[in-house]
């Protein structure tokens, strides 16, 4: 009911929903390119394997960007689709299934829809089947105008791997389509090459495989390195096409690529005796960066999650998100009590981390008295409950800011 909506609206309004006045609107009216980096975790950033950088391009690009080095993915079973859902709605995914499948008929006030009201055209680029993760049905609900999918790309055996085009080929084929869009645009590119089981042709390997007992971990590094190279190429092409200087670039890792089944190999790579649950949680961090042309770089180490990406980006674009329902907060605003909650109820705060029924001291990783985590535990539970209620009850139907109800939108993508 609308009472349910009001309860949640009051709940989110009780958070620190400020903006940073020095940065608000610095990128207003600019094009936006969001890149979802498949299975990319933060531990590869500024690290070497066999003496070579794993992400030379990103390591450079970061210096020139707002780089957030303490951001956790918050995805569940919906994997890439959960990441998309969190990033563009600032809501949590569900504890089972993918919202893209279970609630595509809901009302949302997602980023593309909000930007539509500010004159933006929006499009997604991804070279897999359009029905994968139910994207062809979910994207209109998020307000997207166009979905360039498998049918729009030329896929040949030699330019593809796994479920789609190799990332470099994907970016190359996307350039002309991107150029044809009305501006300003908000676009999302979903990479694919760095997908489990990390298969790659020998000629696409810029670094050698790692040596450990896990073939998965060994192969992960060359595929991450390949996507890094593809990104470098994309940026170069955007510069050549005159699209770079007026475009905000956002890059985020969607979820983990290396599961806990590979802890021994990961311990070897990280030079640790073992991977504790505390370490595992820290490995759930994913890269997040925002490049704004003309702005100098800065690394921000505030603890956060994918729910925080939407308000952070929209504030740079000069869009106040305060009247909207969102569970995240702007990462440029200092928060006295940061609390980042994972879909399974684990959480990270400034002083404590909670996972697998154990409370840990942040920093040392030493187990702490469960009581120390208790107050946060309650908060984490409430937060997930509120987000779930909103989705199960389709409560954004009652949001006065919902200017493009799904029923009145073009239900078919262009
Ligand atoms: C599928 C791609 C990967 O189109 O986005 O999905 P994942 O398996 O990572 O959820
Ligand atoms: Mn993925």
TrEMBL record:
Record-annotated Sulfatase N-terminal domain positions: 30-319
Protein name: LTA synthase family protein
Chief site of localization: membrane
Membrane topology category: Multi-pass membrane protein
Keywords: Cell membrane, Manganese, Membrane, Metal-binding, Transmembrane, Transmembrane helix
Subcellular location: Cell membrane
Residues annotated to bind substrate: 195
Family from the record: Belongs to the LTA synthase family.
Keyword Glycosyltransferase applies: no
Binding site for Mn(2+): 38, 80, 254-255
Active site: 80
GO molecular function terms listed in the Swiss-Prot or TrEMBL record: metal ion binding
Entry's Gene Ontology cellular component terms: plasma membrane
